[in-house]
Amino acid sequence: xxxxxxxxxxxxxxxxxxxxxxxxxxxxxxxxxxxxxxxxxxxxxxxxxxxxxxxxxxxxxxxxxxxxxxxxxxxxxxxxxxxxxxxxxxxxxxxxxxxxxxxxxxxxxxxxxxxxxxxxxxxxxxxxxxxxxxxxxxxxxxxxxxxxxxxxxxxxxxxxxxxxxxxxxxxxxxxxxxxxxxxxxxxxxxxxxxxxxxxxxxxxxxxxxxxxxxxxxxxxxxxxxxxxxxxxxxxxxxxxxxxxxxxxxxxxxxxxxxxxxxxxxxxxxxxxxxxxxxxxxxxxxxxxxxxxxxxxxxxxxxx
Length: 303
Hints:
Rossmann fold; alpha/beta; globular; 6-stranded mixed sheet; 3-stranded antiparallel sheet
């Protein structure tokens, strides 16, 4: 009997099923205040990809991200996170979410270290004491964004670009395998953009999944494996960045052969500046966002 032959009646070992995509949307439609924002979106992002979503203001970029995370309800269609609908997803420690800006709350101001350390809550739970592993993860995250020397300062003392780096460090501290970043370079100085690019380069080498919303790529462009261009709530390009001239928006935010946005669809896009992490209403199963006062944010804030 040859090595390739198999004795009768001996079952062959089962092959493991293929891993589900990190993100998927099928025929996704979203309406806000009665106006269509997303129109029939079909999207699949596999684990290990770094995908950027581009488009002009009002094209539906942030709404797409929020719908994929279950933060914005869809009027029709379906979405999945790692093969599970967002409403039933429980492994929120796998998702590192970086909103557009850090919400500044009242009360006693939190330090940079405290805000970054809040990214460990979903992994260790609220009631468990901080461990050496938690402290080491926070230190690595601060180093990665170049803020180790500012760790003891109140977040409110930092510039907008530095606060954005705090949000990125908070996501890094949780050690997720999937990152979602909503306009992380918006209003950020060149130094911060360079540090972000270096941090993302490390994540890409580690095989992490990164879904990024941006107006333009800048220093991030060499890292991107795929770009998705939205216009009027529709996907008008999905492929290599710059392929056929369609992977980068022009000065007005549209690709050279882009479909112009149609009135209603360009309005009503919402963004999340609250710093909240998905999914609302699941305090023990999702990452916990903290404002700079150190208190937990309202899970429904910004929705």
